[in-house]
Design brief:
- This protein is α+β, with helices and mostly antiparallel strands.
- It has 2 helices and 13 strands, in the order H-E-E-E-E-E-E-E-E-E-E-E-E-H-E.
- Strands 1, 4, 6, 7, 8, 9, 11, 12 and 13 form a 9-stranded mixed β-sheet that branches. Strands 2-3 form a two-stranded antiparallel sheet. The chain has a two-stranded antiparallel ribbon with strand order 5-10.
- The longest helix is centred in the first third of the chain and has 40 residues.
- 23% of the residues are buried.
């Protein structure tokens, strides 16, 4: 017996398929439209090559402290005594020591002068050490700006009033006088043994004493051959 409802069911099925097809097509169209809009928006965010800001790449060297010329911030130095330079600073050439009867390097300059002659601070600074060195005798060390340190040795046992560790001194201020306390230089004539370091490195004081002070206070021993 033929089912009378069969044509009606077939008709409903076709109708449902059409609705599903139309819905799917609409969804695909909507998706395409949204995709186009998004791509357009993203394209607007892309800058032309010329407009792209430069990116700073971290560099380890950028974090390194700048190299500072310490000598540029040192104070001006004057001669610490008036006299004749009889021994020069020399870390390469051996200098004969009459006292020890041997040859050795000389880390400072010797300024020969009268026993008891005044010894002055070569620049503004602070007294950082006072000691009785076993070889250089009574010694005073003064620190200065720019990591400079001046050393005054072979002083007399008694220093000038107020010269103590921590005391501030002015350039040209008397800190003591020339003595005979340096055992390693006892055979030499009375003199001030004067050394200088910059950033812990021994330097020639004559390179730092001002030309005007050298002309007024120091004379070189031209007969001295080292």
């Amino acid at each position: 017996m033929e089912n009378k409802n069969q044509p009606k069911k077939e008709k409903n099925r076709v109708k449902a398929n059409r609705i599903l097809f139309v819905t799917a097509a609409a969804v695909l169209c909507l998706g395409a439209i949204l995709t186009g809009v998004l791509l357009s928006l993203r394209q607007d965010d892309i800058l032309p090559a010329d407009d792209v800001p430069a990116v700073s790449v971290p560099n380890d060297q950028d974090n390194e402290p700048p190299v500072v010329d310490i000598s540029a911030i040192l104070p001006e130095f004057v001669s610490p005594a008036v006299g004749l330079v009889t021994k020069r600073h020399d870390l390469d050439t051996l200098v004969f020591s009459q006292t020890n009867d041997d040859w050795r390097v000389h880390r400072g300059i010797d300024i020969s002068t009268a026993l008891g002659a005044s010894v002055m601070a070569a620049a503004d600074g602070t007294v950082t050490e006072i000691l009785d060195d076993p070889l250089l005798g009574k010694t005073v060390k003064i620190s200065h700006n720019g990591e400079g340190v001046t050393v005054y040795a072979n002083l007399s046992a008694e220093l000038a009033e107020g010269i103590t560790v921590g005391a501030s001194v002015k350039c040209g201020q008397v800190i003591g006088c020339v003595g005979e306390t340096a055992i390693s230089e006892m055979a030499d004539e009375p003199h001030l043994h004067f050394e200088m370091t910059v950033a812990g490195v021994s330097v020639d004081p004559m390179d730092y004493i001002s030309e005007s002070s050298k002309a007024a206070s120091l004379s070189a021993d031209t007969a001295y051959e080292g």
